[in-house]
Structure formats: structure tokens, C-alpha cells
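Researcher: Please predict.
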Amino acid sequence: MPVTLSIKNVPDELVEKLRQRARRHHRSLQGELMTILEEALASPKLSLQELVQRVRERGVRTEDESVAMVREDRDARQGG
């Protein structure tokens, strides 16, 4: 059964940023908050050891390769 959550005393500037983000994504405030929660909880954070292992598995040897890898990962998480 769904639960109703409430956030109190949200600073005006944070609310405005959220409104702007929701407008950019053509969502309501509630829809944007739900998306933010889903994204935050969907992908677990990597430990440093896991990150090092992934870097080694990909065979990254140069700074340019590592920058490309980070961008690729970021784009994949943002859906672009």
C-alpha cells in the first residue's frame, strides 16, 4: 500500500530549484520527487574497492580513458 510522505521546512531556494527541474522534465513536483527518489535508490553506490576493480577490468590506462569512462557511466545513469 502506498504511503504519503511529507517534507517540512524546505528552504524556498530548494523548492524553486525543484520547480525548475520539474518544468524542464515536464513533470509535477510530486512526479519529479518520485523520480529523484527512484534514481537515488535504484543504483547502489560503489565502494572504492569495487570502483578500482571496474577500472582494472576495463583496462583504463590513461587520464583520457578514465574521463571517457566516467562520462559514459554518468550518461548511462542519466538516460542519455
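Model: The two ends are 33 Å apart (CA to CA).
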